[in-house]
Amino acid sequence: MTKKALVIGGGPAGLMAAEQLIKAGLSVTIAEAKPTLGRKFLMAGKSGLNLTMDEPVSAFLPHYYDARTHLDPMIASFGPQEVKEWTEKLGQQIFVGTSRRVFPKVMKASPLLRAWIARLLDAGVRLRTNWKLSGLSENNAQFQTPDGAKNIIADVVVLAMGGASWARLGSDGAWVEQFGPITPFQPANCAFAMDWSNHMTKFFGTPIKNLTLRAGDMISRGEIIVSRNGIEGGGIYSVSRTLRTGVPLTIDLRPDWTVDRVETALSKPRGKDSQTNHLRKALKLDPIKIALMRELTPQLPQDAKALAKMVKCLFIKTLEPRPMDEAISTAGGIPWIRLDAGLMLMDRPGIFCAGEMIDWEAPTGGYLITACLATGRWAGLHAAQYAQRT
Ligand SMILES: Cc1cc2nc3c(=O)[nH]c(=O)nc-3n(C[C@H](O)[C@H](O)[C@H](O)COP(=O)(O)OP(=O)(O)OC[C@H]3O[C@@H](n4cnc5c(N)ncnc54)[C@H](O)[C@@H]3O)c2cc1C
After folding, report:
1. In the prediction, which pLDDT does 390 show?
2. Hey, where are the domains in the chain?
3. Is the CB of 24 within 6 Å of ligand 1?
4. From atom 27 of ligand 1, which residue's Cα is the shortest distance away?
5. pTM score of the predicted model
6. Nearest residue CA, atom 13 of ligand 1?
7. Could you read off the pLDDT of 183-198 as tens digits, one per residue?
8. What's the sign of the alpha-carbon dihedral 213, 368, 194, 222?
């Protein structure tokens, strides 16, 4: 008799699990709480869907920090190269950006998602949208639906309900009540709060380019954006893992120059120039960089040596992360110790986990989607094997 698989959550991890299960010959249903699938995936495509990073697996894996050993076999069998091929097989051309980030040529996620859902439906996957999982006892899953309570009985279940940010797109972390204990969620790739003075309002939305940021042992080269609520953007997301622990942030505003070169430039007589003009001319600093220095230290040092030190190491005291719901992703989730090598919950046989639900984190750069696809595939493959065995 055909075995039945149920996938809960229609994000990239769940869709990938469903694809493996249907290929293995199971009857597959995806149940999704929202009216449509992949809402966070579509949001990810708004500013360019960064699918993966064009680098060898050996360079790719360390971006998962402590989880790298667990993810190793999954990424080794579905890593950057496979993500590129998979995207192209769905009819989407890709390109590699200057920083080796891989995007679909159209940048957005909707054509890829449409093609993917069509392929799943063609293969026979059944969709149940507006179905929110409310309970799962043994192999009997209960749902709240617009037509009242429903249930599905399945031989295997893959949970792919996402992390705990952007709740309005579906990943509200509410599954913890049923499937805990977890490693507590924390914001990852998140913005940090700043209480700006009025001087900074004209810069809201402006990127500060070409910086080096340091927080604890993390270092990132890139840009940040000054926003109404604080600091956001790739440069700060990359150090958010240590920054959220309360270590201070330092910013190098002139990373290509040595401190001696900055000091020498600042030591030149400034004539009638104001200190701001001198900083701008001598160091070619953007006005926003000078405004940031003044915001943090209203009385800038007059001495060239001290000023050069500040340019190279602008100090920002402990910063608070913005609320977790605003974060690009979340750290924490189902701890690896609760999962077997096939991503099955050891205390709930027949129930597998995938995607951001699991306790791993990574910077932006396509590492998030790649791990969601790789764990979704792995959970799907092992769930299919489990169903055939039992
Ligand atoms: C603004 C933004 C930009 C991003 N950009 C990128 C990027 O460029 N590159 C990248 O790699 N990553 C990016 N990400 C992160 C990426 O989108 C996520 O890591 C990824 O979507 C997580 O996939 P997932 O399948 O694990 O979970 P999700 O995509 O969160 O999907 C989980 C699904 O489960 C459903 N669900 C939850 N609870 C239930 C329930 N009880 N019953 C039924 N269904 C339920 C949800 O509705 C949701 O559809 C971005 C994220 C954001 C917010």
Report:
1. 87
2. 4-187+326-389, 192-316
3. no
4. 162
5. 0.96
6. 44
7. 999 999 999 999 999 9
8. positive
CATH T-level assignment (fold) for domain 192-316: Elongation Factor Tu (Ef-tu); domain 3 (2.40.30)
Give, using CA atoms, the residue closest to atom 52 of ligand 1.
Answer: 328
**For position 121, what pLDDT does the model report?**
98
In this structure, CATH architecture of domain 4-187+326-389: 3-Layer(bba) Sandwich (3.50)
Q: How far is CA 195 from the centre of its chain?
A: 25
Ligand 1 contact via 331 beta carbon (within 6 Å) = no
Pick from 16, 8, 19, 84: nearest CA to 53: 84
Token readout for 23 is: 């290929």
pLDDT digits (tens, 9 = 90+) for 192-228: 999 999 999 999 999 999 999 999 999 999 999 999 9
Say if 4-187+326-389 and 192-316 have the same CATH topology. no
Pairwise CA distance, residues 160 & 194, whole Å: 34
Q: Tell me how far apart the alpha carbons of residues 50 and 367 are, in angstroms, rounded to a whole number.
A: 9
